[in-house]
Amino acid sequence: MQRIYEPAAYDTSQTAGAWWEETVASPLNFPTLNGDLTTDVAIVGAGYTGLNAALQLAEAHGVRAVVLDAAQPAWGASGRNGGFACIGGAKLPVSAQIKRFGLEETQKFHASQLAAIQTVRENLERYQIDADTHSEDGELCLAHRASTFQAMRDEVEFEAKLFDQKSELIRKGALAERGMNATGAHGALLSKAGFALNPLKYAQGLAHAAQNLGIPIYANSPVTKITQNASRLSLHHPRGVVNARKVIIATNGYSSDDIPRELAGRFLPVISSILVTRPITPIEQRAQGWTSDLMSYDSRNLLHYFRLMPDGRFLFGQRGARKADAAHTAANKRQNRLDFERMFPAWRGVESTHYWSGLICTTLNRHPYIGPLEGQSQIFAALGFHGNGVSLASYSGRKLADLVAGAKPDLPAALRTPLWRFALPGLRRHYLRLAFAHYRLKDGLF
Question: Which domains does the chain have, with CATH numbers?
Answer without folding.
Answer: 7-443 (3.50.50.60)
